[in-house]
Q: What sequence folds into this?
């Protein structure tokens, strides 16, 4: 049953889902997928890093198990719907929480039936993206900035302005703002004592401070840009 690694990762999740709350040993999984125990251990570690709730019990009778209380039930996504979600998530690029988007897609496909998941992967192979040969040198949103917005924690930035000058600033984060091309962090800059937009690819370093930022209303701080109106992301 030789399969490529991507298919094997999905198949491991399906195998553990089918046996939950029971466990499957690394050796049993290795025999099932005709790979080494070490390969299974690496695969499970990759899934855990992606946020799939797999836990391991050591000792006699131990093995890997999937925590059903933290997984999605079987989903009615059609293969084309799953691929449509994948296309949308692939466009996140340097957007905030882009890494989380990739792990979310893994969870969605893993929650589909085995047949639909396999068909979705086959359809995805027929979707190609044209990209520049040289990688985009714009930095992705640092994970620490994402955490600052998510937890409303004051953040210390080393920021380079449009003139190339670098300053250290303590910022009370409020929101991410998407422009036509770039992503910005809007926050209260304590250095400038006012609201400021920080282009995320100009953030050189970032560190969380042990201080919760005061609550600030986005619309009181949002810049007034002619012909553009900010609107929030909708999740339903």
A:
């Amino acid at each position: 049953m030789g399969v490529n690694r991507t298919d094997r990762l999905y198949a491991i999740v399906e195998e553990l889902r089918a046996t939950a709350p029971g466990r499957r040993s690394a050796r049993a999984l290795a025999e099932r997928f005709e790979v080494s125990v070490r390969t299974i251990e690496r695969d499970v570690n990759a899934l855990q890093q992606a946020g799939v709730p797999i836990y391991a019990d050591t000792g006699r009778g131990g093995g890997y198990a999937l925590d059903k209380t933290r997984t999605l039930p079987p989903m009615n996504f059609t293969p084309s719907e799953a691929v449509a979600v994948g296309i949308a998530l692939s466009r996140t690029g340097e957007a905030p929480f882009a890494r989380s988007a990739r792990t979310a897609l893994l969870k969605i496909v893993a929650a589909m039936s085995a047949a639909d998941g396999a068909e979705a992967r086959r359809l995805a192979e027929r979707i190609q993206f044209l990209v520049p040969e040289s990688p985009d040198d714009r930095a992705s949103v640092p994970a620490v900035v994402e955490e600052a917005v998510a937890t409303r924690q004051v953040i210390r930035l080393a920021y380079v302005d449009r003139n190339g000058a670098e300053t250290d600033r303590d910022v009370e984060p409020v929101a991410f703002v998407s422009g036509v091309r770039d992503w910005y962090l809007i926050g209260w800059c304590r250095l400038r004592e006012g609201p400021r937009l920080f282009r995320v690819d100009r953030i050189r370093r970032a560190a969380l401070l042990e201080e919760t930022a005061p609550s600030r209303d986005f619309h009181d701080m949002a810049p007034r840009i002619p012909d553009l109106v900010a609107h929030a992301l909708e999740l339903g």
The radius of gyration is 22 Å. The longest strand covers residues 166-178.
